[in-house]
User: Fold this.
Amino acid sequence: MKRLEPVIFETSVPGRTGYSLPALDVPHVPAESLLPKEMLRKTAASLPEASEVDVVRHFTRLSQLNFALDEGFYPLGSCTMKYNPKMNEDAARFPGFAQAHPLQGEEVSQGALQLMYELAEMLAEITGMAGVSLQPAAGAHGELAGIMIIRAYHHSRGDSKRTKMLVPDTAHGTNPASSALAGYQVVEVKSDARGNVDLEALKEAMTDEVAGIMLTNPNTLGLFEENIAEMAEIVHSRGGLLYYDGANFNAILGKVRPGDMGFDVIHLNLHKSFSTPHGGGGPGSGPVGVAKDLLPFLPVPVISKRNDRYVFDCDRPLSIGKIRSFYGNFAVLVRAYAYILSMGADGLREAAHNAVLNANYLASRLKGSFLLPYDRTCKHEFVLSGKKQHDEKGVSTLDMAKALMDHGFHPPTIYFPLVVEEAMMIEPTETEGKETLDAFAEAMLAIAKEAEENPDSVKTAPHSTIVARLDETAAARKPVLRWRPAE
Ligand SMILES: *Cc1c(COP(=O)(O)O)cnc(C)c1O
Assistant:
């Protein structure tokens, strides 16, 4: 089992060092003469004194306390925790990329500009959009940029009565948040019994005060919106625009394009679908793409090509402006570029196929022991419900998620989407082999059996981790990031 203690501060031995350097024998300016007197320390900093091997072990141990994708299966629904090929990491670390300075002029940044220009072109082709900006730093940031583009479009036509944005009841929380942040009143649209947006509800909600609708397809139930063409027709016919949340793009890569489904504005989560390690907060990248009529509103600068040179085009009077310092999270862009080129069109399509196959395989193995409220062929993920275990044995989805950790798996996304009680949203991704899927299915089935026979052991799980049940809100909002000596 992994160990937490001791920390290096507690094993410190006065006088022990982890390095040896020859005595300083060159002229130097003492710190006392460089810094104002009042800024000088009165007492030495209390730093741990340790040998090199103790320091290495301390940090290596710390690095192993977390769960990582490189360590095991991570079926966190909606987050697409697929394996990120190490080759893309190498590419992002090429000195020419990693050491490029964002204030370098265009003339000495042609390689980086070419990469961004070509990546934007490839993403436009993959999504069926007319143009793409790589600036937004994450999916939610792309959403905000996209909704600002929708607003700018309506306003440019003198249409300022549209104050509402439609969001389905299955939507990710960032959708209503982005709409609200961009100044829209959020109107929820119900789903029907098959897990699609309810067309009647949509028709009713779609008035001339509505700027558009935010959708992800497949939706957060992992189900393809079967009526997307009709939905697009309803929204467009009343002057609204369709926004595509690309977080579920892994399911449809190379199969169907949001542009062809009728979407006007999209974002992608490069860190999800296009292979950048994520979780724990970034960095990410959420490029935003638009249909032809919306091109003038893209954030500036747009990277353009003039006479075989790549340039930053800032002369775009209708642009929503700049939304991120410099040009986005460049290293994530390098990874996405390397990923797309190494996969090729067929490889991307195969990734989508296998993501969907893996999800359907797992769903079919688990649906006998857990409720599957929307029992349809799913796309890249599916949502189980722990309601049976909850109602019959008092074992909640949270308990079962905790128990998975004892089996060596990262828990799935839980209690989302909100339309499913005791939800467990499972996304296996295409990078997992059948053996891993089977091991996960066996663990889930063992937990279901344990919930039947010995509910208390599930309710007190996990039993093998360093910490058991944290106050998850406090852990996220008030994390303890510093060691302090006992008083
Ligand atoms: C992850 C996700 C987002 C937000 O993306 P971030 O990059 O985390 O900001 C939006 N919608 C859905 C459906 C997601 O899964």
The chain has two domains: 86-342, 345-477.
